[in-house]
Amino acid sequence: MFSKRIVIFTGHFGSGKTEVAVNYALQAAGKGKKTAIIDLDIVNPFFRTADARNTLEAEGIKVITPIYANTNVDVPSLPAEISGMFEDRSYNVIIDVGGDDLGARAVSRYRDQIVREDYIHYFVVNTRRPMTRTKEEIVKMILEIQSSANLKVDKLVNNANILDASTPELLAEAARILEAVSAELSIPVGFVSGMEEVLSGYEGDKGIEKLYLKKNIRLPWERQ
Amino acid sequence: MGEKILMKGNEVIAEAALRAGCRHYFGYPITPQTEIAHYFAKKMPQYGGTFIQAESEVAAMNMVYGAASAGARVMTSSSSPGISLKQEAISYSACAELPAVIVNIVRAGPGLGGILASQCDYFQATKGGGHGDYRMVVLAPSSVQELYELVVEAFNIADRYRTLCMIMGDGMLGQMMEAVEFRDSEDICEADKSWAVTGTGMKRDHNIITSIYIDPEVLEKHNQKLQEKYRKIAENETRVEVYNCDDADIIVAAYGTVARIIKNVIKTAEKEGIRVGLIRPVTLWPFPTAAFEKYAQVPQAFLSVEMSAGQMVEDVRLAVNGKRPVHFLGRTGGMIPTQKEILEKIREILK
Lengths: 224, 351
Hints:
The structure holds two protein chains of two kinds. By secondary structure, chain A is an alpha/beta fold. Chain A contains eight helices and eight strands; from the N terminus they run E-H-E-H-E-H-E-H-H-E-H-E-H-E-H-E. In chain A, helix 6 (135-149) crosses helix 7. Chain B is α/β, with parallel strands linked by helices.
């Protein structure tokens, strides 16, 4: 799961890309890799990588966010140092892309730099989100994002959840839907992700890799 | 009930409106509520309805006036500065007694302000906003599930009384994601809309929808009729959640997402032996005065916690009517009060 130097996460907005990307970065850094995470989300004004900045930086991860992220301005301006990260091969780079085809458009600007490198493009799916519930909807979303990002999806991530009410059965239900998506588009499932207490109880997809998530982005009433 | 799915507050607003039979949406994008328009743009064609991104907020609200005049279930949405632009047509619609739902996902002001969460439009929503003696029902949900239920209810209230109904949330509520469970079908009020301008078919006199009254006596009569309607709404539609108030040392007034922070403060305070109550107005207008009157002499003091410089606190003071001191804690600019600072304020008041 951690073999590629550049790891791109796209998906329907609200699919859980940011939590997956943040946890992935923390675990990559935990394996001793020099890691950077780029918040390329130009769509979502709230709940973003920058919210987990302290946690990430405490693990030595370089955090690059749009210039105005978490301020009162919604100007999607991307910093110049993003380009540098594709060229500095001492870094493993994780990219958290904004939702849907609109958000994925930001990636296409870096396409030429990305395809020269050792990269993988994951598409994160939560089958309990309204526009990615069925095989047909997921296929449509993947095609829209691929076309907008100008970058083919390599693998799917099963991130089915309804926050605190998630269950292993939900992941199994999603696995069946994703199997149909894989069959249609020839895109395999790369890994399954979920909160520790849920994912540990999931036994489907024998041999599939698991990414255990810890909650890093909190609502105001969950903060002290 | 169906399955639980995970949705953003803004998406739920649009989904709930569709379930409530709304087939006409007019709006203009503004953060942090643009997902409402996105959702309608994607879904409305499947329902054979109308989605229009208008040329401005002013135009959008006038389109609402038009569709409501024809008896349609109609909605517009915006965020603070955009709601300011709608005010003229809001006042006209109130005068013409048009039922419609307006959503304000409030951002920090004044002016162009900022995109982060705020409750600084309480005055605008509950004390007029537009000109003239009018009122509109203002509903303030505090979770995504409640957002769904209140949007459906807003359409019913609007039709039942021929009134405007506003859903007021902050950017946090619009942007956050929570599990939501939809009912299989909605309880929709089938109001008599024989007043609508739908064509006479040469079978009746024509209906008139207007907000101009040339004769002062006629306009005064119309005003009296409106006031009578507002009294009826206040009598029947006031909603409030009262939590932990019996024997409370202090009662906090808070609405929307702030009320959720208070519920956690209540748990922490309990451990220190401080009993904190919560009165959460669900309707900001009509304001739940009776709930405050009922508990006015129970605690040592009241505290209004808001993401504003102090707006709802004025209504709390009126309702408590001098029986107990009423304190205030507010944050502005998109800052959200923390559990820690609220608890410190409570300790300081009770010292």
